[in-house]
Amino acid sequence: MHLELSGLTKSFGSLVANDHIDLVIEPGEIHCLLGENGAGKSTLMNMLYGLLQPDSGEIVIDGDKVRITSPSDAIRHGIGMVHQHFMLVPVFTVAENIMLGRESTRAGGVLDRKKAHTLVTELSDRYGLAVDPDALVENTPVGIQQRVEIIKALSHDAQVLILDEPTAVLTPAEIDELIGVMRQLRENGTSIVFITHKLKEVKAIADKITVIRRGKVVGQAEPSASEEELAELMVGRAVDLVVDKEPAQPKDVVLRVEGLTVIDERGFTAVDDVDLEVRAGEILAVAGVQGNGQTELAEALLGLTPVAAGRISLDGADLTTRSTRERLESGIGYVPEDRWQDGFVDSFSVAENLVLDLYRKPPYGNGLSLRTAEIEKNAHARVEEFDIRTQGIDLPVSSLSGGNQQKVVLARELSRPLQLLVASQPTRGVDVGSIEFLHGRIVQERDQGTAVLIVSTELDEIAALADRIAVMYRGKVVGVVPADTPRDELGLMMAGASKHEAHDEAIEHPTTLGTI
């Protein structure tokens, strides 16, 4: 199938998400759509899949202009899409998920499960997907669930397959397997549109690369282009992708976590008997696939999630039963995983958000009154120090880009003396240029003697920042390893192997993980 998008434009109010985008997908190629979160990649693909309607422009398939008003239209035209958040029924088998919505029946109206079983088996064998048709989806790893989504699309005879940020929830080993699957699909003639912001993966798999920035196509690139060249296209300026930091000089233990157990709202053990130490002047990075207890660990440290058992101490003082306010006042800074939910008040001004946890005390507040002059003075200083791009400190923080919103959160937390900085997914949804700045400030805080705990699902970020790495799997810390531990070993630990098992396995069965 030859697919062409011509002049596609989509606006949401005053925001132009896609601005006259042209894109050509050739038969049997892997075309990477590269750009930072918010660049307009998913909006463009949602139009192609019929989830959104363009304001203008056209879609042409094999020379014929088509109108795609729904996913059903897209499927009929041979276009399939695997969303970042899977759309499977957990309590159904793989075969039942594949037949859902187009059930075949035998005599007497009985569901023809055998037909679905056969279809899954045939597609699995043809494309090397290795999926058990009878497995319950809820019992399969995330990487297998993604394969089920791919089979579901292929079962509709998809000739163009859209993969939207497909590696976001995968371990390094699963990413390696996915790349193998994509190559097999390409060899069988399927075209793939691979949406991502990860440079290493683009270089590993792309036949062609189109870069989108702020809703516009800003260039085409070859897979041979360097990561620095791709980053410059994404951001619009040269970017230093390597964090410049000296070896850590760790001192006394600041944070000590002993036997920490957290039960989540569903009654499951999210954090299971975890022991950790973070010293002054070091960065401990917690690695793992999303959903293995890292979020609950960070929230428990701040008192946002109740502790079922264990002890949390800061510089020897027991914080286990202290309130969140008391923990912040004891010298903990917190950059939350979801800045929109927990990091700022979107309708408050930039200046107000910069003192959200400081306004009760001088110089910003006195009793029930706020000292607006001091709040404005602080805002001007922080905007300059952290290079926060804003048209004015009195504008709502919702008017800023994602990177500048994150700078507001970090600037606020670093504007007071800290003993411990807890930063969860500190650069999620942030452009490459802002990542460069944020990483530099986190390292600077470490060098000033603060203990830093980073939670991240991005191995590039872990490798850039960590002095030591703790890997979590199903609520447990399976090992704490040096920062220079190879990616394939980290990947095996993220899948549950101990550090010794991972080391031995990586030596015996090396993979391509280190290259991506």
TrEMBL record:
Keywords: ATP-binding, Nucleotide-binding. InterPro entries: AAA+_ATPase, ABC_carbohydrate_import_ATPase, ABC_transporter-like_ATP-bd, ABC_transporter-like_CS, P-loop_NTPase. It comes from the Bacteria. The keyword Methyltransferase does not apply. PROSITE patterns: ABC_TRANSPORTER_1 (PS00211), ABC_TRANSPORTER_2 (PS50893). Residues 3-239, 255-499 form the ABC transporter domain. The keyword NADP does not apply. One of its GO terms (molecular function) is ATP binding. CDD domains: ABC_Carb_Monos_I, ABC_Carb_Monos_II. Gene3D superfamilies: P-loop containing nucleotide triphosphate hydrolases (3.40.50.300). It holds the Pfam family ABC_tran. PANTHER family: CARBOHYDRATE TRANSPORT ATP-BINDING PROTEIN MG119-RELATED (PTHR43790), GUANOSINE IMPORT ATP-BINDING PROTEIN NUPO (PTHR43790:SF4). This is ABC transporter ATP-binding protein.
